[in-house]
Amino acid sequence: MGSGGQIVRVALAAGMVALAGMAAAGPCREDVVKLRGDGDQARFRVELADEEAEQRQGLMNRDSLASGAGMLFVYPEPQRVAFWMKNTRIPLDMIFLDAGGTVQKVHHEAVPHDETPIFGGDNIQSVLEINGGLARRIGIEAGWELRHPAIDQDRAAWPCSAAE
What we know:
The chain is mainly β. 7% of the residues lie in helices and 40% in strands.
C-alpha cells in the first residue's frame, strides 16, 4: 500500500462473527476489531497489515477465508488511499476509516481481479476488508466506529478503555 493517491494492491478479508447486541469479551486485542453503530455491533478476527510489505501483499492469491476473518490496514498517518483487486480472488467490502476509527466510506462488493482504482477518500488512516456483501447485511455505514489498539487511543471515537 502506498501513500497519497498511489494505487495499492488489495488484499482480501472476510466474515462476521457477531451482530446486534453482541456482548464482546475481553479488552482490545491486536487480532480482533469491533465495530458499532445504530445500536448494533460486529466483531472480526483480523490480520494486521501495518508495514509496507504486508500492505502490498495483503491477502492476494487466496482462494477462501474463514468466516469472521478480515484484514486491517493501518497507515502511519492519515492519507489519500486507493485499492484495486488485481490478484484478489474473493469479492470484498472495503471499510475506510479516519484517524479516530470512524467509518468514512464503505465500498461494497469489489470485483475480483478488477484493476479499477477504488478510492477511499482523503485523511484515511485505516481500512478494514471483509467478505463482499457482509457490510450491507450487517448495516455498516459511514459514522460507525471501530475499536482496535492500533487506533490512536487519544483520538479514538471508541477507545479501548471505554465500556462496551
